[in-house]
Amino acid sequence: MIHHGKKYRAAREKLSAVKPVSFAEGLKKVKELAYAKFDESVDANINVGIDPSKGDQVVRGSVLLPHGTGKKVKIAVFAKGDHAEAARKAGADYVGAEDLIEKIEGGWLDFNNAVATPDLMGLVGRVAKILGPRGLVPNKKTGTVTFDVADVVADLKKGRLFFKNDKNGIVHFSFGKVSFDVSTLEENLAAFIRALLASKPPSSKGKFVRKVTVSSTMGVGVPLNVDEIS
């Protein structure tokens, strides 16, 4: 059983309506009910209409949020030679090959995104079990396995983010900070929703976005009215 602290319970009591509300009203509630002393992230948990056990119904995509997330982006690139130099010039924070692998094997994970040239994916495989649970394994489908490392790094520095459903058919996504105003959060969330809808698998039938809940990192979940999504 999960035991919540006094501040969480107090915030939960303030959420009088448990029925879905408009996006703007819901985001306003998230800001009002945030109680942590740090600038919490604002997260969306979206139940999508898929069978997560089927490989042809995986939801995977990316989005460039209009206002970013408020988080600093750190990028690690696995590359050698000219490709490594191109990655550095594009703004990659860490560039290397065997040296980066050894650091990761030693417990270092001070980056948010990873990019690799195709010829080094065998090397990256050595740490796939470490990177995998954190969603940091470079992947061809997201464009992070490529020889065009400069373009990918530049895109990631601008704030491109990736998303994928979990084993329960839920997509988790952070789209801003509590310090953002409601309109900024709403525009970021709308951009994410559009990208999510575009990623709907052809084999998914019926209503795709079935439930949307938003919350701050430590806060309570506020259900949104999915009928606003066209």
How far the N terminus sits from the C terminus, by CA atoms, comes to: 37 Å
How many helix segments? Answer: 8
Ranges with pLDDT <50 over ≥5 residues?
none
Query: Helix/strand-derived class?
Result: alpha/beta
Largest sheet: 4 strands, antiparallel
- Can you tell me the CATH topology of the largest domain? Ribulose 1,5 Bisphosphate Carboxylase/Oxygenase
CATH-derived architecture of the largest domain: 2-Layer Sandwich
What is the CATH superfamily of the largest domain? Ribosomal protein L1/L10, rRNA-binding domain
Globular, elongated, flat, extended or rod-shaped: what is the shape? globular
Q: What is the strand content? A: 15-25%
- Per DSSP E runs of 2 or more residues, the count of β-strands stands at 9
Mean of residue pLDDT values:
91
- The tally of structural domains comes to 2
The largest sheet has its strands arranged as 7-1-8-9
- Binned, the helix content reads 25-40%
| Rg estimate, integer Å | 19 Å
The CATH class of the largest domain: Alpha Beta
The topology string of helices and strands comes to: HHEEEHEHEHHHEEHEE
What does this structure look like?
- The chain is an alpha/beta fold and about 230 residues long.
- The protein folds into 2 domains: about 5-70 and about 160-230, Ribosomal protein L1/L10, rRNA-binding domain (Ribulose 1,5 Bisphosphate Carboxylase/Oxygenase, 2-Layer Sandwich); about 75-160, Rossmann fold.
- Helices cover about 30% and strands about 20% of the residues.
- It has 8 helices and 9 strands.
- The protein has helices spanning about 5-15, 25-35, 80-90, 100-105, 120-125, 130, 150-155, 180-200, and strands at about 40-50, 60-65, 75-80, 95, 115, 160-165, 170-175, 210-215, 220-225.
- The strands form 3 sheets. The protein has a 4-stranded antiparallel beta sheet with strand order 7-1-8-9, with helices on one face.
- A hairpin with a 5-residue loop joins strand 8 and strand 9 (about 220-225).
